[in-house]
Structures are given as structure tokens and as C-alpha cells.
Amino acid sequence: MPDQSDPSFEPSFEPAAVHSARRVSEASIVWTLVASTVAVVLGLASGSSALVAFGCVGYVDLVG
Q1: Which of 38, 40, 44, 48 is most buried as measured by Cβ atoms within 10 A of its Cβ?
Q2: Domain for residue 36, yes or no?
Q3: What whole-number distance in Å separates Cα of residue 58 and Cα of residue 56?
Q4: What local confidence, expressed as pLDDT, does residue 18 receive?
Q5: 28-41 burial string, b = 16+ CB within 10 Å, else e?
Q6: pLDDT score recorded for residue 13
Q7: Is the pLDDT of residue 5 over 70?
Q8: What gap in Å lies between CA 39 and CA 57, rounded to an integer?
Q9: How many independent structural domains does the chain possess?
Q10: R_g of the chain computed on alpha carbons
Q11: Which range marks the domain in which residue 42 is found?
């Protein structure tokens, strides 16, 4: 393993690890979008402002 204290050390990113990390991020985005949309729709249908707010917080989290 290279010496990380060496100033010329530059970490290399393995394509498989980067691909896996991207897939996890994409899955997280899709899950948050679906869950937030369901929460807002159910909140509007049932008249629950708390559920609508919960879904909107999910959208804010998604943007972040």
C-alpha cells in the first residue's frame, strides 16, 4: 500500500468501487423520490398536513 503521508500520493479510484457507489446513490435518490411522493399524495388525500410536510422534507433532502 502506498505511503499516504507522501505529498505526491494521489488516491486512485477503482472503477468497480466508483460504479458501486454511484449505484447506491442512484437507488437512494429513487427511493427518496418515491417515498416522498407517496407521502405527499397520501397526506393530501387524507388531509394530513403532517404527512404532506414529511414528504416535502424528503424533497428537500433529495435536493441536498
Answers
A1: 40
A2: yes
A3: 5
A4: 87
A5: eeeeeeeebeebbe
A6: 73
A7: no
A8: 10
A9: 1
A10: 20
A11: 29-63
Output the pLDDT for position 17: 83
**Does the residue 24 lie in any domain?**
no
Residue type, 5: S
Answer yes or no: pTM beyond 0.90.
no
Report how far residue 36's alpha carbon sits from residue 16's, in angstroms, rounded to the nearest whole number: 30
Spatial CA neighbour of 55 closest among 41, 13, 20, 17: 41
Three-state secondary structure string covering the chain: CCCCCCCCCCCCCCHHHHHHHHHHHHHHHHHHHHHHHHHHHHHHHHCCHHHHHHHHHHHHHHHC
